[in-house]
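Subject: for your reference before the review

Hello V.,

The reviewers asked for a structural picture of the protein, and I figured it would be easier to keep everything in one thread rather than splitting it across files. Below is the amino acid sequence we used in the manuscript, unchanged from the supplementary table.
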Amino acid sequence: MKVILSIKPKYVERILSGKKKYEFRKVIFKEPVDEVIIYASSPVKKFVATFKIGAIIKDEPSSLWIKCNGDSGIAKNEFFEYFKDQNYGFAIKIEKLIKFDQPIHPKKIDSDFIAPQSFKYFEYDQLWKKNRILKTEVV
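And here is what came back from the structure prediction:
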């Protein structure tokens, strides 16, 4: 199953450059997910890439930081500000990242698309395959 993750453009840039190899979340999927579609939030508001989930680590924020900080792509203060008042968090390992040659406007896939606050399950596989634009693998 696929899921759409809304990610701020500054973090999307770090993911696409290879500096950010983990995406951090306070909550995680209840269904099994193997692929993520990256939705760059405002002002971009487009699908820009996909990646396979390598692993999902659940731990206390301090332990997550120790395990992932070298590949976190974010500053320590940003990390701990995000996880303040949280007993645990999740680190999603980004693998097999594929950047689209052209970002995809979500309305091409679903005319009623509403960007998720965090994530939402993707239910449009046939439309996705039909409208998918050329892609380039990112190392």
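For the response letter, the relevant points are probably these. The first helix runs from residue 9 to 17. The chain has one domain: 2-137.

Happy to draft the paragraph if you're swamped.

O.
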